[in-house]
Amino acid sequence: MKKTKDILFIRYGGLSPLKQDHYLPHGHPEKTFHNPPKKRGLYAMIKGYEELFLLGATSNPNHISGKTKWLKDDDGNFVIDDRTYDGDSKVNYGAQYTSELKKLLKKRGIGERQLQSTRQPHTKPPECPTEDTECKDCPIHKECQDAHIHYLTVLKKPRIFEYKGELWHHLSDEVDHWEVLERCGDWIKTTYDVFVKAFSKHKHLIMKDAHSNDWYPKREYNERLHDPYKRTFGITYNRDHLEVFIEKL
Known about the structure:
By secondary structure, the chain is α+β, with helices and mostly antiparallel strands. The protein has helices spanning 99-108, 141-147, 192-211; strands at residues 9-11, 18-19, 40-46, 68-70, 84-85, 95-96, 115-118, 151-155, 159-161, 167-169, 182-184, 187-190, 244-246.
């Protein structure tokens, strides 16, 4: 039997377990797919299968995870996020960069994929005084507009690490019930070995489904057989469900 390849994990931010303020217990009516399975721990991703969109909720540099920092210009000012978006582009979620921003990133040695954006701390938009007034005529228009401005942040260099203990993940369909140590919401807790086997099976099933669809270019059948997340035939598979949660390293 072919040995399953080991997995490395990647995390943006520190490796110490953090208090999860948004934790909700199993069965809670408001518990969502990504809501943490435990009160303390840390989120991570499989190296090579990162989904940076998942980091958006904690992209403020003041967040306890410390995964980002503010992008500043040569005068030390925060840089406003003035990017536009092209819905037809598959690169960096369609973000379009001005020449000035590209020059600044090159000067700082920052890749475009490292960029995110958020409001400055303590800039909660004020309550709208009336719904009948045009924004441009509102007495607090400037204050409200400033509070909605987003500034660019930069993802710091991620931590790549090896971990072979018990962990939480979402691959319940690829795991036998007797291999599940614990459940919480859409998460299951298993050993590392069970997770590795489940991930390998998951990729196989996804690729099998891809081959069964008419849009799949048959000429790529042999070339892209084993990994649906690494192919280039025009359909992008969502990676949100490939996150993991580790209670303690």
